[in-house]
Amino acid sequence: MKSIFLETNRLLLKFTRADDFQNLMVLRSDPNVMRYIGDGTTHQASQVEHFLKTALAYQKRHGIGFCSVFEKDSGKFIGQAGLFHLGFDENKKDIEIAYRLLPDYWNKGYATELTKSLVHWGFTHLSVKKLVAAAHADNLASQQVLKKAGFVPIGTIRWYSNQDVLGFEIYKNDAIDLVPYNPHWPELARQEIQNVRVALPAYHVLDIQHVGSTAIPGLLAKPIIDIQVAVDSLAMIKQQAVDQLKILDYVYWDENPDPTRLFFVKGMPPYGEKREAHVHIVEATSAHWQNKLYFRDYLLAHPEARDAYAQLKHRLAQQYPYDREQYTQSKTLFVEEVLSQARLEFTLCEKKRH
User: Fold this and answer.
1) How distant is the alpha carbon of residue 70 from its chain centre?
2) In which order are the strands placed within the sheet that holds 250-252?
3) Which of 46, 125, 211, 230 could make a disulfide contact with 206, Cβ separation 3.0–4.6 Å?
4) What Rg, from alpha-carbon coordinates, does the chain have?
C-alpha cells in the first residue's frame, strides 16, 4: 500500500502507520481537539493503541481510512482526516468524512481544503451516492466547514457514538453537470415564471426574468432554470415568498449570508432527485438585478464572449465537479470583465440616445 492517500494544495494525507502513535497521542490527548468528539474526553494511551490496531486493519481491507495529515511545506503532523464506514463499522453502508486538527492549525482553511478534497476523492473512487458527516451542535466552526464544502444539514440525528449531533450529507447527483444548450429551456422558464408570478403577491413584484446560462442560446449550462424576481421590498415579501414558494417545492436557503437576496432551490437532494430551478428574489434597485441582466444581454449580443465563457465553465466543471463554491469563485474575474464591458456599452448607448 502506498503511503500517500491524497494530496491537496497544501497538505498530504498519509495512511496510518504503527509509528504514528506519538503524533496521535498528542492529538487525541488535547482537550481542545476532543471537546466536541464523542463524550468530549481525551484519550489515554490504551485508547490510541486500540485505534491504531483498528485503523491499520481497516485501511488494509478497504484502502481508505482515517489518515494522518501533514503540511507540505513544514512536514509537520497537523491532525487526521479521511473517509470510512460510519464509525468504522463495515456493516454500515454510509461513508463518513471526518477530520480533527491540532489547534495551531485552526483558522487556516485546512479543514475546508481537506473536506472538499475528500468529497472529490470519495465521489470519484467510491460507488456511493452520498457522503455523510456530523458536527456537535455547539461546534459552529465545523458546521461552517461542512456547508462551505457543499454538505446539506439534515437536522439532529443520533450518531453512532449515541450522541445527538447535527447531521450533514452531500450528494453525487448534485454535482456540477454541464450539458449542451436545450431549446426547450425558454419554455420551461416561461412556465416556471408563470408559476412563480401566481405564487407571489403581485403588488410587490415589479418584474420577473429568465437569467443565467439557460437563458443564452448556444451556451453550455447546468440544466437549472434561473429565475430572477425584482420586488419593491425584500422585508415586505420575505415571509410570503417562503410560504408560497414552498408550495411549489422550493426550499428556502435561510442561512444565505447575503442580505440583499432571497434564494430558493427546487429539486436539490435530499428534497428531490436533482436541481431543476433556482429563484433569486432581489430589490429592483439592487446590483443583483442589474448585473444578472447586463451579463445575460452581453453574452446574447457577443457570441465570442459566450464561447469563451463556455470554455471556462467546461474547464472549471472538470476541475471542481463537487465544489460549487470554488466553481463560482473561479468565474469571478471573467464575470467582472464582462460586466465592465456591458456597463460601458450601456453608457455609450445612453449617450447616443441623448
Assistant:
1) 25
2) 205-211, 225-231, 277-283, 262-266, 250-252
3) 230
4) 24
Extract the C-alpha cell encoding 319.
476541475
**CB-count burial class (<10 Å; 0-12, 13-18, 19+) for 222:** buried
Q: Give the distance, in angstroms, between the CA of residue 337 and the centroid of all CA atoms in the same chain.
A: 25
pLDDT at 354 over 70: no
The residue-averaged pLDDT of 79-98 equals: 94
Tens digit of pLDDT for each residue in 128-162?
999 999 999 999 999 999 999 999 999 988 888 77
Given a contact cutoff of 8 angstroms between Cβ atoms, the answer to whether 133 and 96 are in contact is yes
Superfamily of domain 185-353: Beta Polymerase, domain 2 (3.30.460.10)
Q: Hey, is 47 helix, strand or coil?
A: helix
Q: Give the start-to-end residue ranges of the domains of the chain.
A: 4-174, 185-353
Contacts 24+ apart (CB under 8 A), 240-247: 240/200, 240/201, 240/204, 241/200, 241/281, 244/199, 244/200, 245/196, 245/199, 245/200, 245/279, 247/199
Q: How confident is the model at residue 1 (pLDDT cuts 50, 70, 90)?
A: low
Mapping DSSP to helix (H, G, I), strand (E, B) and coil, where does residue 296 land? helix
- Span 174-194, average pLDDT: 96
Element (H, E) at 168: strand 164-171
Query: Counting beta carbons within 10 angstroms of the beta carbon of residue 184, is it exposed (0 to 12), middle (13 to 18) or buried (19 or more)?
Result: exposed
Cβ(193)–Cβ(170) below 8 Å: no
pLDDT over threshold 80, residue 2:
no
What whole-number distance in Å separates Cα of residue 67 and Cα of residue 51? 12
Amino acid at 300: L
- Provide CATH code, domain 4-174: 3.40.630.30
pTM for the whole structure: 0.89
Cis peptide before 270 (omega within 30 of 0): yes
